[in-house]
Each structure stands twice: as C-alpha cells, then as structure tokens.
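Morning. Coffee machine broken again, so started the prediction first thing and wrote up yesterday's gels while waiting. Chain of 468 residues, entered below exactly as on the submission form.
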Amino acid sequence: MAYEKVTLNLKMKDVELVKPSKFTPPCILSLSTLDNRGIYNNHCQTVHVYRSSATRDSDSSFDHCHVFKEALSKALFYYYPLAGRLVKHADDGILRVNCNPNAENYGVPFLEAIANCTLSSINYLDNNTNTEIAKHLVLVPQDLSYPLVFKVTKFLCGGFTIGMGVLHAVCDGFGASQFFNTIVELARGRIEPSVIPVWERERLVGSITKQPFPLFPMRKESIAFSPFLNQTNSTNIKQYCFKVEGEMITKLKLSLMKESENENIRFTTFESLAAYIWRSRARALKLNNNGDTMLTVLVGMRRNLKDFDPIPKGFYGNSVMEANIVLKVSDLNEMSLYEIVKLIKEAKNVASTADYVKNTIDSLETNFKYPVNMEKSTGAVTVLTEWKHLGFMGENLDFGGNEIVNLVPAPCKMFASIEISVLSSSNKFDDVVPSMKGGVNLFTTLPVAAMPKFKEEIEALRTLSVDI
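Came back before lunch.
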C-alpha cells in the first residue's frame, strides 16, 4: 500500500532525557582528527521498523517503548559519552564531548509517539517512490550538541519504529550499529554488552605535516553543475528507494566481464554498482560535459593494515577513509563501465594502505582551520556508502516478540544531502521475492525533475546484453 493511502498523525509525549543507569564520572573527552571533520558535525537519522509477530499471544502489558528506554539507560552506562554534549572550544575550534552527569541537560533526548494507523497501512516504509514519511518518525533536534537522540513510535498493530539520530562526529556507521545492537541485547535480557565499547580517539589524531594532501581533489572553477540545481533554493529534492534485483546485478557483472576481454580482474557488487550509479546520476542530473565530477566511496579501516596500529574491538568512532575518483563528465559517459570499475578498485586499494591513512589524517590535522567547502551543491559529487555489512538487520535484533523488518535512512539532516547515496541490504519483504535474492536497496537523493531519467537508467539494467 502506498504512503498516500493514509495520513500519518502522531500523538506525542514530552521529550525526556534518558540518563545512564549508574553513576558515570564527569569528564571532557577529546575526539579524533577524523571525528573533527566539519562534514561530520551533523546527525545521521535512521528508522528501524519492527513488525508485531502474528505467532505470539498478544500481551498488552508489555510496553516495548519502556523496555527499550530502560535498555538504553543501561547501555549508556557503557557508552556514557553519548549522553554528554558536544562542545567546540573557542581557543582551537576543536570538538570535544562534555560529560557532566550533574548538568540539567545531561542525557539522551527521547520522544515517545503513538500513531493513528498500522504499519501495514504505510507499507512498513518499504516504498520505492519516496521515503518522505520517515522524516516524521525521527527526532530532529535544533541543538546539534546532542550526540544521540531517539524517537519511538507505537502503531495500532502492535508494531513500532525506532528513530535513531547519531551525530557523525561521535560515531560512524559501524559504531552506531554496535551501540544499537547493545541496546537490543540488554532489552533481551543480557547483563552486559557482548562487545565492550572503547573510546581511544587519540589513536587517530594526526600530526602537522609540511606536505599535506589536497583535501578536495577538484578545482572549483572546473566543477560540473546540474541545470536542475543552478537555480534558487526552491528546487524540489527528494530521496527515493530503488530495488536493484539480483538478476540485474548479475547482468551488470556479466556485461563487465564481456568488456574486460578476459582480463583477469575480479570486481565486487559494490564496485560494479558504484560505477553504474555514478554514471547514471551524472546523466540524470545533466551535468555539463566539460566539467569535473567526483565519486567518493568509503573504505573501512577496521581490518588490520600493515604498519598501522589495528583499530581495537569495541571502537565506535570514525574509522573510514575516502577513496576519490575524478573524471570529466564526458569521459565518464564515454569510457567503458569496466574502465570506471577499475579506477574505483584502484582508488579503494590505495585508500586501504597505511601510508594513505597516515597521510590523510595528518593532512586533515594540518588543514583543520582551513576546511574546503562547496558553497552550494552542484550535483558534481556522488558519495556512496554501503550498509550491507554493518549489522543493522538480523534476528539478533528482534525483541519483545517483534521482528525487525526494515531499515530506512530518514531524508533529513545528513541524509537529505543530494551527494549521499546508500546501498543497503534487502529487507524482510524482499526476502520472499525471488527476484530480490542477491539484490540491494539503493537510497539516493535527486531533484524530482532528474528522477525519471535516473529510474530509466536503473531499469536499463534489466536489458543489458550479457552474451559472452
């Protein structure tokens, strides 16, 4: 059922602050060089959808919101920095976390809401037209100093959604998933987390260098632009979800093998889709041919790198590198897709080396006071991140007789950016659709006027020639 079939109305209680269940010491904690990137000082909002199990007896006395809130309080004893406040020191401009349990504003803002409908009436947020309804299921704070916020919405069917907002400066996607898993573990009865959190942000603090990397590998005067965005701020922009079926991915990979002419290079699903999505967005946005466009893919540092101190288990700070590929728009359109995939693979390999990691962190530290920011979005940049392996879905996240069936990035704050696209694993509804076996969900934000062309590009995957 489409979202438009029902009007979602919410009855909301007052926002309360959830504090750690036990005493935590007052302190001020430093963040890493990676945490202090200006683009990370924003909330990432996600909606976790829980369906009421039809197989269990209804227990009206079981309050999922109360159980979750209690588990959150217990989890905050271990993750107490998330109950603090982000502060920027006037002398150096560096972000730190102020943990003061005696302060009135100490704790995690928590909002409980009751919806006027069932989850099935809004299709469990499994919608391939747009995800606008997710905006109403998260708490969007006006004050960016809160590292963490929650909104739990109960529906008439007994299901509920958990809207989680995490300040990217404090957690990356892996860290956010680790924390969410901890809450559910405690809600399910564990005494302590299976993974004990580690702060240790000093591991990723850089040193001043005389030869820093360029932080933005495009010259401003050569950046491509989209006519859809070269207007006033009234441009209508929306986030959409596309279901990329397993067979479509298979055809894409077979076509790449055909283009490779038996060159013995293996490529992943992510690399294949990254090239295709980058080119498809450029075409949909009608970027000018003589301008530069950039693809940024995020590369994790949690695997051990030679000659680099390993990230400890339990670390929940930012630990990803950016692999950037810059091309003229004309080259992006004219090169074989296989050649683009090779460039992506090469950039990922370089970003996975200890030298690249060290030099990037040192360059960020050196140029901290001189960040490079684009004045406005031109459509030239595509940032692609993958959530398939973060651990946000799975039976281990079910609790209270409810099963997690979907995960959606809410199109606000960071995920409202036109640059960011997310590849996510299929949800529980996709699991029963044969064509979605091996498939993924793609969330991307574009001007409404550009979306028909992008949809056409994605649908073209069905008709790729795969004769080898």
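Residues 269-285 form the longest helix (17 residues). Going to sketch it on the whiteboard this afternoon.
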